[in-house]
Every structure is written in structure tokens, then in C-alpha cells.
Amino acid sequence: MRVILVDDTAKDISRLKGVLTAVGCEVVAQVRAAIELHELVLKYEPDVIILDWDYPARDVLKQLCELTRSTPRPIILVTAQRDMQTIKAAIEAGVSAYVVGEVAAGDVDVVLRVAIARFEAEQALKRQLAQVQARLEERKAVERAKGLLMKARGIDEAEAYGILRKMAMDRRMRLAEVAQGVIDAMKRPG
User: Fold this and answer.
1) How many independent structural domains does the chain possess?
2) H helix runs in 71-174, sequence order
3) CATH of the domain at 83
4) Predicted TM-score (pTM) above 0.70
5) Does the residue 110 lie in any domain?
6) Cα dist. 38→9, 34, 100, 102 in Å?
7) Do 91 and 170 reside in the same domain of the chain?
8) Alpha carbon distance 112, 23 (integer Å)
9) pLDDT of residue 10
């Protein structure tokens, strides 16, 4: 497992780096500032990002949010912060696992697996949501096209749907594509 380690603490990070190596991780980059993170993710394509950050600032969480949108990865935040505002902001920024204090050597593997599992579950939910939204937009297009056909031809809903369905079969297109074509054609003047 390829890991980028961002360390902005006064403590010695070599113990964590050693434990990561012991559980089979390859620390491909270690940096002191999150500002370099996006470029490093593009360069090394890590499986996980671990931030050891005593007091994560708003700009760091904003960078994580942007990173999560552009190149999502499981992110583990190890911090001294226990307040709910920081925890909530970190989760909203895309942090998969939030660890207060130091990660015990025996827990590193579990924390990694939990972060990856939570990240994968969230990505699956995002994909499902996108699919549902796409189907809803397709359904709206079909309903709108039916309404336009009903008004233009003075027919009922069943007939309008039948026309759309036949056009889709004849053209070997999806119903939503035909519906959008009908909408576009009826928008054109003349």
C-alpha cells in the first residue's frame, strides 16, 4: 500500500513511518506542509494519505476538500484536536479516519483498513447518488417530451409515450436520448 505522510508536528514521526513499513506500506513521500499534497498525489498516486497534524487549520481542511473532489483518496487525520467543530470540518473535507493522539503500533493496520473501507463505502454511495440523479434527469426529460407531444399533437399521455418509445426502438437509442431530441427540436423556432 502506497502512503503519503504529511507531518506538521513537533514529535518524531519516524515511529509511525516504521510501523507503516512494518505492516507492508510504502511511504512514497513525506512532507511537512499540505500545500504540496495535490502535486504529490498526482505524482505518486498513493492508496492512502496520512496527515499527522496537531492543529489542522481551515486552509489545510480546505485543501483536503479540494483534493477529495479532484483526486479522492482515503485520508487519515492524526491530531490532538478533540472538538466537534474540527471533527465535523475534517469529515466534511473528506477525512476517512480521525484519530486523536498517536496511533498505537498495533492499531495502524486496523486504522488503515477502516479508513479504506469507509472511503470505499462513501465512493459507492456517491456513485449510487449520481446514478439516481441521472435517472431522475432522464425521467424529467421523458415527462417533458411527453408533455410537448401531447400539447403539439393533441394526444393523451399513453400515445405520447408510445411515440417516444417507437422512436427510440426505430433509432436504437435510449428513451431519454430520444426525449431530449424531441425537446431540442420543439425548442427550435420555425
Assistant:
1) 2
2) 84-92, 108-153, 157-171
3) 3.40.50.2300
4) yes
5) no
6) 20, 8, 24, 25
7) no
8) 10
9) 67
Residue the block writes with cell 481551515: 58
Looking at the structure, do residues 49 and 139 belong to the same domain, yes or no? no
Radius of gyration of the chain (CA): 25
Residue 86 has pLDDT above 70, yes or no: yes
Q: Are 97 and 115 in contact (CB under 8 A)?
A: yes
User: Taking all residues of the chain, what is their mean pLDDT, rounded to a whole number?
Assistant: 90
CB environment 143-167: b (16+ within 10 A), e (fewer): eebbebbbeeeeeeeeebbebbeeb
- Reported confidence tier of residue 1, pLDDT bands at 50, 70, 90: very high
- Which residue range forms the structural domain that includes residue 166? 129-187
**Angle at CA 165, nearest 5°, toward 186 and 151?**
35
pLDDT tens digits, residue range 160-178? 999 999 999 999 999 999 9
Task: Give the three-class secondary structure for 98.
Answer: strand
List, as own/partner pairs, every contact residues 132-139 make where C-beta atoms lie below 8 angstroms and the sequence separation is at least 24, other chains included.
137/176, 138/174, 138/175, 138/176, 138/179, 139/176
Which among 46, 59, 53 has a CA at the least distance from the CA of 7?
Answer: 53
Whose CA is closest to 40, among 83, 7, 9?
7
The residue with greater pLDDT, 171 or 15, is 171
3-state secondary structure at position 82 = coil
Rounded CA separation 11/14 (Å): 9
